[in-house]
């Protein structure tokens, strides 16, 4: 709609382009514009000043608020309230990926988590129209089982996670992809120890059904810390080794990750960044110490990192690899694979690389 100029526009508060439309409408309009300018410009100046001051105050107060209320940080780290894709129907995974069924598992009293089970691509034809019982029995078909532990934000229906199901499903793995407590259609609230409980409950459930098939923990991003927490707990508390751990785009521990991710850049020079923000992670019970965990593990450990990862820099993945390698007795059990920048895989898209299954199978000595 063409603007008329004049006072009514002033009322609308849309003063940004009034100069142009004023010129097009002759003197009367211009005179009204002048009046408008005289009264608006000082106001605008004050408004901008107030805004800038407000932003500065927020910038300065956030680190102190975090120190005072460290649990605020859990919101930023877990991002489970960003439940994208927002209209996913978890009960109908077949809309996004074939040979997949949705199930729910109670991991502790009062906490039920949502899971998708994708069966190996070679069983796709058989899988059509099958019920939950068939899927459970399929777990014992000798194909390895991946327990997939996604990163923060979003749900198991996010595009790159669905791609993981497609890529590794087509390569004849079973995949159990869960939404931790507080994510997706799962109940409960996110906590680091709660995630471990969820993963171990799923491990037990799968182990009870998978016969002699191997079970892998595969973590991506935040999920890498969850994978090593779970593998370590399994080993230390029950003397059980998971068959392998794969860490995609990992960090060393959450403190070091937070010091390097882009979002904290604006605070790195802030006096007391370590004390106010980084130390608050531990005060909010967030550790995710993969670097400590891998020193304890003895299972095969594969670390994957893209050189163009813009979220968790690849040097953290390398550092984790070096920590593991120096701690492992059998050095052949630890491997680090980087993906060159030109592939453009970044932080989230390693599962889009068609080479991935072959690399993983080669590491696991499978054909
Ligand atoms: C499932 O498989 C069918 C037949 O191969 C294919 O046409 C369809 O696109 C697949 N669905 C999804 C969601 O990938
Ligand atoms: C598991 O392996 C053992 C020993 O190799 C074998 O006796 C048993 O039949 C296998 N079980 C299944 C379910 O394949």
TrEMBL record:
It comes from Pipra filicauda. GO terms for molecular function: monoacylglycerol lipase activity; phosphatidylcholine lysophospholipase activity. This is Protein ABHD12B. GO terms for cellular component: endoplasmic reticulum membrane. Keywords: Membrane, Transmembrane, Transmembrane helix. Residues 144-259 form the AB hydrolase-1 domain. Residues 1-11 have a biased composition (Basic and acidic residues). It holds the Pfam family Abhydrolase_1.
């Amino acid at each position: 709609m063409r603007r008329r100029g004049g006072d009514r526009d002033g009322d609308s508060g849309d003063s940004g382009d009034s100069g142009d439309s004023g010129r097009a409408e002759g003197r009367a309009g211009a005179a009204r514009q002048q009046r408008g300018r005289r009264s608006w410009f000082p106001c605008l100046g004050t408004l901008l000043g107030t805004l800038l001051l407000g932003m500065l105050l927020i910038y300065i107060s956030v680190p102190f608020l975090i120190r005072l209320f460290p649990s605020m940080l859990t919101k930023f780290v877990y991002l489970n309230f960003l439940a994208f894709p927002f209209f996913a129907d978890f009960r109908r995974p077949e809309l996004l990926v074939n040979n997949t069924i949705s199930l729910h598992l109670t991991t502790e009293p009062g906490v039920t988590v949502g899971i998708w089970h994708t069966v190996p691509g070679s069983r796709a034809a058989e899988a059509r129209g099958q019920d939950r019982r068939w899927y459970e029995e399929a777990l014992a078909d000798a194909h390895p089982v991946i327990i997939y532990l996604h990163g923060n934000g979003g749900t198991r229906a996010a595009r790159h996670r669905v791609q993981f199901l497609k890529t590794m499903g087509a390569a004849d793995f079973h995949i159990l992809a869960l939404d931790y407590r507080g994510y997706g259609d799962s109940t409960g609230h996110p906590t680091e120890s709660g995630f471990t409980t969820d993963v171990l409950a799923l491990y037990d459930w799968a182990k009870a059904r998978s016969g002699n098939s191997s079970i892998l923990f595969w973590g991506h991003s935040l999920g890498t810390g969850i994978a090593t927490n779970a593998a370590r707990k399994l080993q230390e508390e029950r003397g059980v080794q998971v068959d392998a751990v794969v860490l995609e785009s990992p960090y060393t521990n959450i403190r070091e990750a937070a010091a390097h991710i882009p979002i904290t850049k604006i605070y790195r020079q802030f006096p007391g960044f370590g004390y106010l923000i980084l130390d608050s992670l531990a005060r909010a019970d967030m550790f995710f110490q993969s670097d400590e965990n891998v020193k304890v593990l003895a299972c095969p450990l594969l670390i994957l990192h893209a050189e163009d990862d813009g979220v968790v820099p690849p040097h953290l993945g390398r550092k984790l690899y070096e920590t593991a390698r120096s701690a492992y007795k059998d050095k052949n059990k630890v491997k680090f694979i980087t993906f060159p920048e030109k592939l453009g895989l970044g932080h989230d898209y390693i599962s889009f690389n068609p080479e991935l299954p072959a690399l993983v199978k080669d590491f696991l000595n499978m054909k």
